[in-house]
Amino acid sequence: MHYIVTQLVTENDSSEFSLLGVTDDKARAAEIAAKAYGAYNKKASVQGVELIAEWLRTKLRHSFRRDKDHRLQLAITPVDGETPEGGSAVIFSAAKEQDELMRKMSEALFEGKHAAGRSADGETFSCRVKD
Questions:
Q1: Model confidence, pTM
Q2: Where on the tree of life does the source sit, at the highest rank (predicted)?
């Protein structure tokens, strides 16, 4: 089995997807990804990077958000043979947060969980939750 290590860096409105490495050892793949985390998060302690490496060994993915406009996503994808099977072929499924929020609000309005309206001044919009 081989492990493909990838990263997705989102900064403001731009995204950069990178292949960090391919290895046949899961622990080595976690080390490669944790090293990328340490380079991205300069404030991370040695223990923090080690904890991220442990997390990556077990969960095979990690997401770190520096602030609302900067995000690092790491993934380790196991590949046995030529192509990944089923859902493991999806490395990241990313949507802009604003698009995701609008989708969730539209869904909530459609299901009747929220009611949209204007305040008395006619300027302020709101979306109240129905109890």
A1: 0.62
A2: Bacteria
